[in-house]
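Before going further, learn to read the protein records used in this course. The integers have meaning only within a learned vocabulary of local backbone shapes. The record below shows the convention in full.
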Amino acid sequence: MTKPTNTQQLAAYLRVSTSAQAASGIGMDVQRDSITTAAAQAGYTITAWHEDAGKSGASMRNRPGLQAALASITSGEAGGLVVAKIDRLGRSSSDVLGLVERAHREGWRLLALDVGLDTTTPAGEMVAAALAMAARFEYRRISERQLEKHQQLRREGRPRGRASTPTKTADAIIAMRHASASYRKIAGELNARKVPTAQGGKEWTAASVRSAYLTRQRELETAA
């Protein structure tokens, strides 16, 4: 990575969640105006505008606009990232905190105008600390919900999680894939042989074959 040297040169990121918002352009325009105004007041320059129109905030990886903005920082074209609202980065405090920690680790600047997050200022550090507390709270709540669910399943005598594909079947799927068979073709072959699925009673589909294949591949890689 080329370490950013000028944290006054920032990539701007805009996002709206629905296709209707993307079509109207209103949400994007409001974010753009906020960033433009703040840049003029604070004296930083926008190197490029990156957008994700109609993209959920659930996953950072599945947003090409955000990934392009981060790539511009990695290449040294920008010294940081600015967003109008922190929820444009993501819905999860832990995801946003991960980005804050990455900014610290790699030496670039992250700004979220609505909450005063700026990784280069003491006040911004306080916001980052609050995010860390929120992320820990989210993690504990998720853990508690999972524990409650497992306890309920145990009381009802039901198994935890999804049933897994038998090793023999999974290995056969891997062998067929290595022989260049498509997931759809493998599903047809398994159904023709009346090989039961992990759930039992359902027919194999290309998606379920792919899931079994990837799961077994991960198991083999871990064991290697």
Summary: The chain is about 55% helix and 10% strand. The chain has two domains: 9-132, 167-223. The two ends are 31 Å apart (CA to CA).
